[in-house]
Amino acid sequence: MLIENSLWNQTMIIIGEIAVLLAIFLVGMALFLLVVALLSIRNGRLYFPRIMKSWFFLLEGLVKAICRFFGLDDRDLISFSIRLQNSMNKKAFETVPVEKRAVFLPQCLRSARCPANLTPEGIACKGCGLCTTTDALGELRRMGYRVFIVPGSSFIKRMVQKYHPGGIIGVGCTLEVKEGLTLCDQLGIPGMGVVTLKDGCVETLVNWNEVFEVAALGLPPGSIPTHPHPPAREPAAGNPLPSAPAQPEPSPK
């Protein structure tokens, strides 16, 4: 009986020591990842991207907990993880033919006065010109993309199951893009994320130049729009959105 108790105690001690060493290793690795992430954010370049991707997503919760402990804003880490995933997915995305690519745009880019209707294929733009989405949709489709305006979170999964895209560009707020890229990883689809310039539910903004830079990856120059959009600008408060220019009256014969 004494021998059994002794063996049990020794086993528990060994297990406890292993658990402590593992905890120390994980905390140390999380601190290392945090330092590398902060250096990458500060210097505008990614260090050790392959190592960072594997370990960062494994220990992301612990890294965020350390950030909160030290009073750091973990939103920068989320933005960093998006940049990291974009960097790792870029080469695979470039090899996907454009006809096998899809773009998912958030409905919050629309004007508050948008007359578009909800359809099984998402929100159907009527080309009213009340927001910059109209022109962007046309250019992306001319490039060969299948483009959707997303009405809800479950919509993306349904369209992926229906059309089986080989590559995806997702536009949205920071958390939406992060979740979308994680979904792409789970489905084995190379995804690229573009974060909107401001968060919100109505009339948000995106830099369309950035969207088209991603859309042009791996495509011949002839398929890229020659007139890229300027960065989005928010209308001044109280000013209505510009309407289409009036047509000139026909001159008398």
Shape assignment: elongated
**Rg calculated over all Cα atoms:** 24 Å
Can you count the helices? 8
What do the pLDDT scores average to?
A: 80
The strand count comes to 6
Share in β-strands: 5-15%
Order of neighbouring strands in the sheet with most strands: 4-1-5-6
Reading the helices and strands in chain order gives: HHHHEEEHEHEHEH
Structural class: alpha/beta
Percent helix range: 40-55%
- Poorly predicted tracts of residues: 235-253
Query: Distance between termini?
Result: 117 Å
Number of structural domains: 2
The biggest beta sheet, please? Answer: 4 strands, parallel
Give a brief outline of the structure.
With 253 residues, this protein is of the alpha/beta class. The protein has helices spanning 2-43, 49-58, 60-69, 75-94, 133-143, 153-163, 174-187, 208-215; strands at residues 101-106, 117-119, 122-124, 146-150, 167-172, 191-195.
Structure description:
The protein is an alpha/beta fold and 253 residues long. It folds into 2 domains: 2-72, no CATH class; 97-223. It has helices spanning 2-43, 49-58, 60-69, 75-94, 133-143, 153-163, 174-187, 208-215; strands at 101-106, 117-119, 122-124, 146-150, 167-172, 191-195. It has a 4-stranded parallel beta sheet with strand order 4-1-5-6, with helices on both faces. It has a two-stranded antiparallel ribbon with strand order 2-3. Strand 5 (167-172), helix 7 (174-187) and strand 6 form a beta-alpha-beta unit. Helix 1 (2-43) packs across helix 3 and helix 2 (49-58) packs across helix 4. The chain starts with a helix and ends in a 38-residue tail after the last helix.
